[in-house]
Hints:
The protein has twelve helices and twelve strands.
Amino acid sequence: MGNRFIAKRYRDSVRTAMGDTDSKSRLYDDVINFSLGDPDLITDDYIIENAFLDAKAGHTKYTDFRGDKELIDEICRFYDEEYDIKLPDNEVFISASGCIAMYLVLEAIIDDGDEVLMQAPYFTPYEQQIKLARGVPVELPTYEEDDFQIDTKTLEKHINDKTKAIIVNSPSNPTGSVLTIENMEEILKTAIEHDLVIISDEIYTAYSFERKFVPFLSLEGAKERTITINSFSKNFIMTGWRIGNIIAEEEIIETIQKINENVVFTAPSVSQRAAIHALRNRRNIQPKIIEEYRERMFYAAKRVNGIKNMHVIYPPKGSFYLFINIKDTGLTSKDVTEKLFEEAHILMIPGNGFGKCGEGYVRMACTKDVKTMKIAFDRIERMSIFGKKDE
Length: 391
């Protein structure tokens, strides 16, 4: 960057791994885009229609600074009904998206130079969000051979007197892994020993395929040091509504509120109304969404494992992403994604965009229907570096 008015801290900044996918998707008429985690489905009609009625009824103004009281009450009711967790309403904050939620959390707890461990491969914005809060991001690698669980010995090695927090993400973007309860308990034990904050990014809770999702704060002894980030974007196909929430101890919520008043003031009122209707009607809305993405994930994983020089963990554990191992090609993640695009007109994200330990993988977002995925995998099988495995 050559403009002298740009802040020095941004002059050498780079775009995320997703940054150029939009422009590339327009280069060919037949591009199949598996790059971004933006579902192809749209928000359920019930949510849209009732949010519209609420807007017509006057819900177009600022809400309370912590969020619409009805939505906060609905979130508390949800945790009680789904997880038997009793949340005081002063421990819930409504944010303008999960991404804003993560920034607000980091800004609230990080002092200059504090280190934050990121479960890696990690959601690409984490690194820059930590830096925005003047912290130091530290990659905590996980590996396919361990089912992408967090090894506590590796965790211990990455902790020092500057370490303040660890970000965990389960079900994971990008790996699709789900932390076992045993692994969560081990992480918690280590966090207690070193007095760390656990920031639990729980964006894909609806897409836990092997077992019902277990919130980190539900573990015994976790509540006082766990900050939970939720979003309606993926669980209710509401990416464009930009609405999420934070659960934390009261003083942390109060601090987050003060910061947010200088960032976006309050979350969008109409989006908050939509979130109320989503939660109240989740048992009618979510099952068909979950089943659709389950079908896609299992279909895509089977197709991947039927192609030479690529494989993925089977069965899929969660989220709607596959983290596909392409090491047998002998090429880098970037090389493979370029070949996929140039030869098959398919967009995926190179795995090293999610951390160093992501090299040798590509991420596929299963945000296209099975019919479209079949076309894509048929194209991949015709590529010289891949091909169909022998029966």
